[in-house]
Every structure is written in C-alpha cells, then in structure tokens.
Amino acid sequence: MHYSDFWLANTKNLLKRAMRDGYAVPAFNFYNTETLTAILNAAQITQSPVILAVSESALEYMGGEMLMGMIRGAEYKRGQIALHLDHGHSFEVCKYATDLGFSSVMFDGSALPLSKNISESRRVADYVHKINVSLETELGILAGTEDKNTTAKNHSYTDPDLVKDFVKQTQTDSLAVAIGTSHGAYKRKNTNETLRFDILEQIAKNIPNTPLVLHGASNIPQKYVNQINKFGGDIKNARGISPAQIRCAISLHVAKVNVDSDSRFAFTAAIRKTLATKPDIFDPRFYLNAAREEMTKNCIDEIQNIMGSGYKI
Questions:
Q1: How far apart are CA 234 and CA 41, in angstroms?
Q2: Is 198 a catalytic residue?
C-alpha cells in the first residue's frame, strides 16, 4: 500500500511549510487506539497538522496490519496528518513501514561510523524517494532510553561542519540533530541546563533549506510526575526541556519536535488516579477513557503553547 491510498499527508510538505511559517509540527508517539485517538482529537480541536510517530517496538507491539487498520478506521482530514516510523535502525524495517503505507521513515544510523551512516541512509533514501515517501536521518547521538530499540549511554553533539555534506550525500529530507536533549524521563540534571543553541544556529546556517528535527524534547510536566507518585508511583528526578527552550529551537529551523514521554506521563497519571480513587472500577474502558482524555489535554497544551502549530490547517 502507499500512503496516498489512505488519508495521510506527505511529511516533507508539512515540514517545509512549518519551517517557512515559523512553527513546529508535533510528532506524537502512539501505541494503541486510545493514544492514537487522543492525538487525533487534539489535532481536530486545535486544527493543527500532526505527525503520528511509531517506533520499531510500537510497530512490533501493534502489528503492521492492525496498525494500518486503525489508521484507515480513524480517517481524518486528508493531507494534514502524517504517519512516521520513528528510529528505524535498519533498511529492512524502513522498507517494511514504507510498504505498509507510512508517509515518512526515520533511518537512525547515529550509532554507526559516519561512512556507514551515510551509505545506509542513502540506501533508504533511494528506496523511499521512488514513491515520494520522506526520509529523516540523524547525525549525532542522544543519550537516554526511549525503548528497547533506542537507547544510548553516551551523547555526542551534531558537528555543524559535517551537516552540509551529510545532507547532500544521503539526500535526506530532514535531519535530526543532537544539541543536548535526551530520550526518556531524565533529560536534565538540573533546571539550569541549556541546550546548545550555538550549535543549532550554525547547523541552520549551513543547511538553511533542510528542516531540522528535535528528539528527546519532552517537557515532562511536573504535575503528572507528582500525580503518579501520589497514587503509588515511584519516579524521582524526572526533568524535561522547558517550553521556552523548545520555542527557541523552533525559531532556528526546527520544524518537527518529537513528544513521547509527556504522553506516557499524562496517560499513566490518569490511570493511577482513576484506579486509586475509584477502587470499585474494573472496566478497562473507564480508566482508559480517562487516560485518553488527559493525554488529549496535554497534546492540546503542547500544540498551543510550545509548537505554535494550532490553526495552521
């Protein structure tokens, strides 16, 4: 199948417009019907373009055919929502997602030697571009853990001197950069840490026509951390990236911001509160609906107050 057989948008077009008009398209990860509909509900309420992001492990969890059945059944305004493979680590999984009907894929060769990252990225580009599917690649390494497929102990900043040649050789449509963000719930050691905007500014100057992508940039709202802990959780020292810093990055050609941890926190906080305050409840639809509603609220807040993508449809 091709994404044009569904109701999905060309990701490259969404990002080009975002970079031109000075906002970022949020890429929200989802794992099931509840998280998918939470994102789409937020997009509808705010009239925002959105990228539905699916990691390798989420693709495995849902199953390709089931996932695309959900996409077909959740039809939204044609041309406003993209479906994206997040952190694909091999040509094979990128091809699989493309053939399923994804409108963009990310090949994450950041852990490979530079020459191998370039050659494998170009291999993916040659395949997906034949059918107008967009490619995102990554240069630099983000520390932290997103899931079993995406984890790294060490961090390395993107080298601005390499980006122009990297984009030219790989023919990538967008580039994920490492400027101090990280995967998971523990993005900052303290609240005073600042992203390397000097690096980002130089990257933007060197590749002014390439949309940039920020991974590991969740805000981690403390109200959700506190709620989880209040109702039986045990999460300590979770810190995200401040909205002000994310907005600053958006002003420097970041056209796509990935959000995963925030949604997980909102979803989990609502479930914990619901089960703790209503101990007689055993119908999953009750607490899953509460979780979906809270995740929708959080997506709306981020669209309106961080991404600046509301009412761009």
A1: 30
A2: no
